[in-house]
Amino acid sequence: MNISKKDALTWFEFFAQLPEDEDLMPQQMEIALSVFAQIERAVNARRERMMRAIPGLQSLQDRTYYVGDFSRFPGGCKSCLLGTGLSAVRKTNRCNANCPFCYDYGCLDAQPPVGDGMWEIGGTKFYEEDLPLLLSIHKKPTGISYVYLEPFMEIEKYYGAVRIFHEAGVHQHLYTNGLNASRENLKALAEAGLDEIRFNLGASHCADRVIEKMAIAREYFPQVGIETPMTPEFYDLFLQKKAQIFKTGIDFINCAELHLNENNIDNYAGENLYMCRQGYISPIWSQDLTLTLMKQADEEKWPLLVHDCSNRTKFARDLHLKAVEGGWFGQSSYGCEFTRLPFAYFLPLLRDESFTFLREEPMPRGFGVGDIVL
Fold this sequence. Notes:
By secondary structure, the protein is α/β, with parallel strands linked by helices. It has 2 domains: 1-42 and 340-374, no CATH class; 53-328, TIM Barrel. The protein is 36% helix and 15% strand. It is built from 12 helices and 13 strands. It has helices at 5-17, 26-52, 75-82, 131-137, 159-167, 183-192, 208-220, 232-240, 242-246, 284-300, 311-324, 347-350, and strands spanning 58-59, 65-67, 87-90, 118-121, 124-127, 143-147, 171-176, 196-199, 223-229, 252-256, 273-275, 281-283, 305-309. Helix 7 links the parallel strand 8 (196-199) and strand 9. The chain starts with a helix and ends in a 24-residue tail after the last helix.
């Protein structure tokens, strides 16, 4: 149904007041999903217009979009979208930053440890000496990524594992906020065989000392880039320091569409949100800012590649991963990260007169506010 914005607001105001232990009835859920679809259709229509305005926009087998020289496209993303997926390797449960966009915001001090001397891969715990056994039994992945939370809190513990995967011919990339990076540990990490390092520049508010570390990393690693959730703050700071960042010689910037969970959503209360394919919930401005940045990069012929790591890209990633794992047709792990739909957080958008639905129709018979027995 093409529910009107007025009716959508009425229903969402009601849904937002329901007790936490009260589920929606099937007809009510149909209404709720209709509202989410109306919002998403309007968001997608605007983004399609924005993408048509970028002449140099390129597609990677319809799985993601980018502008720039494909030779700079990050190898970790190729593995994620075209290879055997994104294999996360976890070790460090601590961080030296406190970012509002972090999925663990507010509970960083409560993250469970992986275990002394251990690595978590595929949900299983391994000692470093177990890694050759793992590689001899499982099919070698095209790539792995070091995540969770800030590896440079104890980066010296990573060199041995990096060396083992390097010798096995596995592409490796690592995420860091760069605050604890130094010439010494960057050089040691590169000598161990890390292929690619990604700086979350938004975590340091584009700090000069982190930009300097990016330039140092460029001396040692085959690929260096930025990966940061796209927020208005990061967008503005990046443009202010654009020339300084370009001088580092980095290869790419992955503009991640910020998606929200129960930990960080309160940091964005009051923003206009949308729900992508009944899965990730994001501020509308996040990918809009990415497309705006990509247009500028295309027009100015920036020396680095700009990649739109959007919710759609993550949807394609999960479809691809299940396909290479032998999943059934259409299987994916993509889905909503909320145990209960946060209706109240969509009220600002439904009350925003500047946001309009593409098409509105009267509610079908039996779906009006007075038709459903509550």
